[in-house]
Amino acid sequence: MRVLRRFATAPVFRSRVATICLWIAKNTGVRAYHDARCGPWESYGRRRAQGVERATVKDNEEAWKTLNRLIRSYRENGLFVLGSQLPSVAFGSIRNRLIARTLRVKKIRIGPRAYLRGLSSVDMGEDCQAGAGLWLEAVTQYNEQTFSPRITIGDHARLSNFVHIAATNRVEIGDNVLMGSKVVITDHNHGQYSIRHCSPHIAPSLRPLDHDRRVVIGRNVWLGDGVVVTPGATIGDGCVIGANSVVVGNIAPFTIAAGVPARSRKVFTFDTDEWSDTT
Asked: In angstroms, rounded to a whole number, what is the distance separating the alpha carbons of residues 27 and 5?
């Protein structure tokens, strides 16, 4: 921190940092004010005078959280990581504002390298946060096929890196759902293998997508890393699905399930407020 503070006392550096903070504040939707007598580091109690402009963002908690997160990143990881984060924060805020406008929500945070398609068929709740590499696609056309899909995601969803959600019919995800990295949720397959059977002589990419099933995930569900939720699956409220599990069929509410396919391991007992083993 001493190095950072020493650089912060240099007039050229102070003005540039203040400009960066102001630019970030403006582009995160903050009501910014200019105060020529304050330095950019007031978030940790330091005031620097003598002609430095800064953005006071006390009326907007999100802006303060962003600036404090950058300072904490420097203290924990050093200048290299902080430098790599600054462009992401700045341009990410613009990207998120555009995505929020498209999805008609007030607040959303999507990480870099997201692949988003069919957003007119997505009903997004407020305060969704997703890590890098989100693949969210409401498939409206594939080869000669056309679909009318609908993806619904509730409020306060938390998605880790490289989550893949795709629908040709219907995917419903409740409020406060937490997903680990590389979770896959899909309501369709390449080809059909139960009622109308596709020939294995047809290339998988040329097989028609099915579009007659749905996926429903309840509220307060936690999906561990690498979980795959297959077409037609239903996961009840309050469930926990262990890492690398494959969900097929129905998982009853308030159940801990794991395995391939996922099976019930524990059930929450409200009388005792405990998770008890299933027999």
From this structure: 25
